[in-house]
Amino acid sequence: MKVHVDMNLCQSHGECAIVAPDVFHLGDDDVLVWHDDVPEDRRAAVEEAVNACPMAAISIEDE
Ligand code: SF4
Questions:
Q1: How far apart are CA 20 and CA 33, in angstroms?
Q2: Cα of 8 from ligand 1 centre, angstroms
Q3: Most CB atoms within 10 A, among 23, 30, 43, 49?
């Protein structure tokens, strides 16, 4: 599955990096970096990040 983050919305709160640290992390300058191609078995963690994001910036695109 593809993971998309709208960087116009993201404010680097980091909740996504707490619930799914293997997919999302904050770089040195607090800019979010993420894997945009995530194995299907990590879907539950990504969905948790979608729900945790206070800016609703994360979306999943099914292939
Ligand atoms: S939780 Fe949302 S706002 Fe915070 S870093 Fe992740 S994508 Fe950005």
A1: 12
A2: 11
A3: 49
